[in-house]
Design goal:
The complex is a heterotrimer of chains A (436), B (130) and C (581). Chain A is an alpha/beta fold. Chain A is built from 17 helices and 22 strands. Chain A folds into 2 domains: 180 residues, Rossmann fold; 167 residues, Dimethylsulfoxide Reductase, domain 2, CATH 3.40.228.10. In chain A, the strands form 5 sheets. A 9-stranded mixed sheet of chain A has the order 5-4-20-19-18-6-7-16-17. Chain B is α/β, with parallel strands linked by helices. Chain B has one domain: Barwin-like endoglucanases (Beta Barrel), CATH 2.40.40.20. In chain B, 25% of the residues lie in helices and 31% in strands. Chain B is globular, with a radius of gyration of 14 Å. The two termini of chain B are 24 Å apart. The model of chain B has no long low-confidence stretch (mean pLDDT 90). Chain C has a domain of 99 residues: Urease, subunit C, domain 1 (Roll), CATH 2.30.40.10. Chain C starts with a strand and ends in a 5-residue tail after the last strand. In chain C, helix 5 crosses helix 17 and helix 12 packs antiparallel against helix 16. Chain C has 581 residues and is α/β, with parallel strands linked by helices. Classes of the chains: A alpha/beta (436), B alpha/beta (130), C alpha/beta (581). Chains in contact: A-B, A-C. Chains A and B meet through helix 1, helix 4, helix 6, helix 10 and helix 13 of A and strand 1, helix 1 and helix 5 of B. Strand 8 of chain A pairs parallel with strand 16 of chain C, so a sheet runs across the interface.
């Protein structure tokens, strides 16, 4: 193996919400040739970032994508946005913060809706937090102090491959031996690969999270349950769990989509928030959503400071309004309510239920993404962009709220700009169009 | 002709391979292979009279899709797992219960031995045809 | 370059220069106050109007993670008042108690404020804070990073290494773009990592064997050795507990002997005193039923002890959003109110341990009504207004939009009587407020909202006054204190301060009659301390070691990158080479 000409260190990986920032990227002749420290997905992201790219801006003509100049693509995008009566701007979680800010400007100017992918991942978490609050955790604190770690409805080995090795099965300042001084549990409906690495696996029946969490709360408060089991778990086992949670010095609940996407949705989170709050009367407990896209936390943050609301924001009246269930992407598409979509760094055609696809196939879509995907096949306009954190810099937010600076490692393909610049071009042109 | 189906609770979620291949490209064969299967337990496979690798049809009230059957590691009777992605989404619900979040988990489904000889052509769904 | 301006015939209050309601012209050129301008200058007639230096708010939570946490957790708080529509000049956004970023800048600006300080920056989140600062227009700003529950601080305190601590402060100020040293419930928030609190200055901090007293003293000594423009900004232990006036006085006493930099008299600033000077009735217990106002007692302490300054944190009524770096206090409040509770963790990593709890201050509540009297009693009993700053600890004790109301209480006995009638009877029985005759004059109000905060922040050479060479940050209000008896017309005070007739930021008219005209960024003031090379090198390597050991992200990614700062920043060098290695 030839030696790398240049090695970039301390690079944040822009795949999942862990934003591991210890990646070493080896570059030769303007190409990434090696990755150190990263997980399998990280390697794929960096080493294969150049594969399957959208090669040119294109416009759909007679069912075929035909290449156009960037200016033509931007003009077409502006034409679509300007003539839309109900525009949906969606995505954002896999790009950096400055791109979000440009997207909100467009949404405000066009009187559209802007939603990020949290509506289909941890949106219910946000709703649960809006019910009851949240004792939020931080990853260093967990590494240094947590003696009981619970993953609930989450499969970190698949979705956040280094979460366990970097933050929980690792020594910290006050946890010298991560195997002895810290216990890790998994609560899930199936014995995933993560189940084999933890100290204790608690299997619950699908859709019973709310009952199980509520039972834990009841037991914590000293109530007796008039049943023998809840969610397939014997009450005696739940009692043991509660006792261990109460006796922990510092506990942390990491929860995944198994909690937010299943029956009960935000009610599950509300219950979990309250369980953690109750536990704080005895000892220290915090919780943290296992955020999937590397910058979905950032999308919530930027949206919140600019508009007051974390997602599902409608500018139809000239100011931001918020209503999940109304202004969320799946609802708007399933109802057939939107007549144009600006999609940034997401693939709704692959990830939304079938009913949404019908609308997607009927409305003009402006798709902004580095790579081909299922949405790009449908889009009226495709504009390729640089991969944030590899081909352009930016800022993103880790799952615990830590902002991190993304590095530019190599140049993007010729003529390819960052999301923020493309969106900025659309905004400028749209502003002129609106003034006419 | 009546078909023999097995009732399961269908759930969808992330896998390492799905993550790796989507970073390569969403239109690659590798990605398609990573998301077009269903994991079933041994008893279910036996009841359907099929081996791992055979094609099965997963049906819910929202739709149906033909994918490859795999044997699950966990051996949990009654639970079927599909990687999240376009195949799983043809059988999940768009009902968000006014939360924005569709039903990606814990969906009642039936699994049949497939009549078809290939997995579903996802392009058709993307084309918007029900 | 903006056009020269002459503000003609206004009634000028400029306490720093001893001007108390004189009719005179103010000339502005190139962003500064100048002696005169040429004939081409734009003449703005402000006859019969009040001309003040632009408002300086030294303690308001306008940016950062806990504010965003509160915004996201409480969307219902954004529709208490009308949102702002997009216009050709301005962006849209929400209002209420927290505001979104753009509307926050606009509203402050339309009230005549030109400088606002965020007093609680978790240092490692500086990057996100700078991104957000970019979206707050129309204000000069600065940030105070928190040091009081930070393991690196504790390391140096424990070692008794004050030079190292000074070096660490300098390192953080550079890395984050900070202006001064904030301390919040030292040790108590750290103990919150295990669900505990520290209420007294001499209780040991878990795992460290040092005390809050040592932490406060060390940080004050290090700050004075560096000669930072702003003294240590203290939120003491035991906040929100009945009888805590004793803790507060003890902690202030603890630094009394420390010599100020170049002989400066004040070495510490006590923030939101309303929450920290709760007294109790005779033979009472430290319980809310026995609470009484410590406002007068604290004013007497201040009149005798000259080594500190204070801001009010005046309680207003109605919905508020409590958010402090005092995690354990916030949990107690949650247990009392049973409302939502958000918590941000404690660690080295996020030195803050903040809590967020929505709170509704009610006039009929015995406790709230007494809390209301405390800062008023204090502010009206203090000899030296130059050491007292009007704040509401936005949005904790109420949003900044309540400042006009607070001023009306301070400036009008009549107004206080009207409000006392609405309060629980304890407001009369357990404070001396009712009997206080004093009414702040326009001059005093100007000191407390302009000149004093500028002086305490160490920006008084340029801000908070209208002398030649000052930054041309000016606010004009449409009332005429020479003709109208404001004390007799408290509604005029409220109306008058709610909207400026004119706000000028760096020589540009940015708002007129409460409507934003222009949306410049303002500057973010930061400090750039220069240490001697030996100390800088030693601290850099020690801090790298500690951050690498204790944090879960890379040392190299700690500082807020230039690209997010440089265009907003006014970096002020500070020669601290005299601090020994």
């Amino acid at each position: 193996m030839t030696e790398a000409e240049k090695v970039f260190t301390d690079v944040p990986c822009t795949f999942c919400g862990c934003l591991c920032d210890d990646i070493e990227v080896e570059v030769n002749d303007g190409k990434i040739v090696g990755i150190k420290n990263g997980c399998a997905i990280c390697k794929s992201r960096f080493l294969k970032h150049h594969e399957n790219r959208l090669e040119h801006p294109s416009i759909m003509k007679d069912g075929e994508q035909s290449s156009v100049s960037l200016d033509e693509a931007v003009s077409k995008a502006v034409e679509i946005i300007a003539s839309a009566r109900r525009l949906l701007i969606y995505g954002l979680s896999s790009t950096e913060n400055d791109a979000h800010r440009e997207a909100y400007k467009i949404a405000e100017l066009a009187g559209g809706v802007v939603d990020n992918t949290s509506s289909v991942c941890h949106g219910p978490t946000i709703l649960g937090v809006q019910e009851s609050g949240e004792a939020a955790g931080a990853l260093a604190e967990v590494r240094n102090r947590a003696d009981l770690v619970i993953y609930w409805g989450s499969n970190p080995l698949a979705a956040h491959p280094r979460h366990i090795s970097r933050y929980t099965r690792v020594a910290g300042e006050y946890i010298k031996d991560p195997k002895k001084d810290r216990k890790i549990w998994l609560v899930d409906i199936r014995k995933s690969e993560t189940a084999r690495t933890v100290d204790k696996f608690i299997k619950l029946q699908p859709g019973t999270d709310l009952e199980v969490i509520s039972s834990l709360r009841a037991l914590l408060r000293g109530h007796r349950l008039a049943v023998d089991e809840v969610g397939g778990i014997p009450v005696s086992e739940l009692q043991e769990a509660v006792d261990a949670m109460k006796n922990a010095k510092y506990g942390i609940l990491f929860f995944g989509l198994g909690l937010t996407q299943s029956k009960g949705r935000f009610r599950n989170i509300d219950a979990a928030v309250r369980l953690i709050q109750d536990l704080n009367s005895y000892t220290k407990w915090n919780m943290m959503p296992m955020r999937g896209h590397y910058n979905v936390s950032g999308a919530n943050k930027t949206s919140t400071w600019q508009t007051g609301y974390p997602y599902a924001v409608d500018f139809a009246r000239g100011y931001p309004r918020y209503q999940p269930g109304e202004y969320t992407a799946v609802d708007l598409l399933a109802r057939g309510e939107v007549d144009a979509m600006l999609n940034i760094a997401a693939d709704p055609a692959a990830h939304f239920p079938k009913a949404c696809l019908k609308t997607l196939s009927q409305i003009p879509i402006i798709n902004i993404d580095p790579k081909e995907n299922m949405t790009s096949r449908l889009a009226t306009v495709n504009i390729p962009v640089a991969v944030a954190g590899i081909e352009c810099d930016g800022a993103a937010v880790r799952m615990d709220g830590l902002p991190l600076y993304l590095h530019k490692i190599i140049d993007p393909p010729e003529g390819v700009l960052p999301d923020r610049d493309v969106l900025g071009m659309i905004y400028k042109k749209l502003e002129k169009e609106v003034k006419k | 002709m009546s078909r023999v189906g097995v009732k399961v609770t269908l759930t969808s979620g992330r896998t390492l391979l799905q993550g790796r291949t989507l970073e390569e490209g969403k239109l690659t064969d590798a990605y398609r292979d990573a998301v077009s299967y269903v994991e079933l337990d041994g008893a279910t496979l036996d009841a359907l009279g099929i081996e791992p690798g055979s094609l099965v049809e997963v049906e819910t009230i929202y739709g149906s899709v033909v994918v490859t059957a795999k044997k699950s590691r966990g051996e949990e009777p009654g639970i079927a797992f599909m990687p999240c992605g376009p195949y799983a989404n043809t059988v999940t619900s768009d009902d968000t219960q006014e939360t924005g979040m569709p039903s990606f988990k814990s969906i009642e489904a039936q699994v049949f031995k497939a009549d078809a000889s290939t997995i579903s052509d996802i392009e058709k769904f993307v084309g918007g045809n029900p | 370059m903006s056009k020269d301006i002459i503000l003609k015939n206004g009634i000028v209050y400029d306490p720093k220069n001893g001007i108390d309601g004189e009719v005179k012209d103010i000339c502005i050129s190139d962003g500064k106050i100048v002696e005169k301008v040429g004939e081409k200058a734009k003449v703005i007639d402000v006859k019969g109007k009040t001309v003040l230096p632009g408002g300086v708010d030294m303690h308001s939570h306008i940016v950062g993670s806990k504010l965003n946490f509160g915004r996201a957790m409480c969307p219902e708080a954004h529709r208490l008042e009308k949102p702002m529509m997009r216009t050709k000049k301005t962006r849209s956004g929400v209002t209420g108690i927290m505001f979104s970023s753009y509307t926050l800048g606009y509203r402050y600006s339309s009230m005549g404020y030109t400088t606002v300080i965020e007093p609680a920056l978790p240092p490692m989140k500086a990057l996100g804070t700078w991104e957000e600062l970019e979206d707050i227009p129309n204000l000069n700003k600065a940030l105070l990073p928190m040091f009081g529950n930070n393991m690196v601080t504790y390391h140096y305190v424990k070692e008794g290494d004050l030079s190292g601590l000074a070096g660490f402060i300098s390192w953080i100020l550079k890395a984050t773009g900070g202006w001064g040293v904030k301390v919040v419930n030292p040790g108590g928030t750290y103990a919150w990592a295990y669900g505990k609190n520290i209420r007294e200055p001499d209780t040991e901090i878990p795992q460290w064997g040092i005390t809050p007293r040592e932490v406060i003293r060390s940080l004050v000594m290090a700050t004075e050795s560096l000669g930072l423009p702003h003294v240590v900004h203290l939120h003491p232990n035991n906040l929100g507990r009945v009888g805590n006036i004793h803790t507060t006085i003890e902690e202030l006493d603890a630094v009394k002997d420390i010599k100020g930099f170049k002989g400066r008299k004040q070495t510490i600033h006590l923030t939101h005193m309303s929450f920290e000077t709760l007294d109790m009735v005779e033979e009472g217990k430290p319980e809310w039923k026995d609470v009484s106002s410590g406002g007068l007692a604290f004013a007497k302490y201040m009149n005798k002890n000259k080594h500190f300054t204070a801001d009010l944190g005046q309680i207003t009524f109605g919905p508020a959003m409590t958010m402090t770096g005092d995690g354990p206090f916030q949990f107690t409040l949650h247990q009392m109110t049973k409302t939502k509770w958000g918590n941000i963790p404690v660690d080295v990593e996020l030195p803050g341990g903040a809590g967020i709890v929505p709170y509704n201050f009610e006039m009929k509540s015995p406790a709230n009504s007494i809390q209301w009297t405390i800062p008023l009693e204090f502010a009206l009993s203090v000899d030296d207004i130059w050491r007292v700053v009007m704040t509401t600890d936005h949005p904790n004790a109420g949003p900044f939009t309540k400042y006009p109301l607070v001023l009306s209480w301070l400036m009008s006995k009549k107004q206080r009587a009207i409000w006392l009638d609405k309060m629980h009877k304890f407001a009369r029985e357990r404070s001396t407020l009712e009997g206080i005759e004093r009414e702040w004059t326009m001059y005093e109000a100007t000191i407390s909202t302009r000149a004093a905060p500028a002086k305490i922040l160490g920006i008084d050479s340029r801000k908070g006054h209208l002398g030649i060479g000052a930054d041309a940050d000016v606010s004009v209000y449409s009332f005429n204190p020479l003709k109208t008896n404001l004390a007799e017309n408290p509604d005029l005070i409220v109306q008058g301060f709610s909207e400026s007739a004119l706000t000028i930021l760096s020589g540009e008219v940015v708002a007129k009659k409460g409507v934003v005209q222009k949306t410049p960024h303002g500057k973010v003031m930061t400090l750039d301390p220069q240490l001697n090379d030996d100390l800088a090198a030693r601290v850099a390597s020690e801090v790298e070691g500690m951050i690498t050991r204790w944090y879960a992200h890379s040392f190299k990614n700690y500082p807020a990158p230039e690209r997010y700062r440089a265009h907003l920043e006014e970096r002020i060098p500070l020669d601290a080479r005299s601090v020994t290695a």
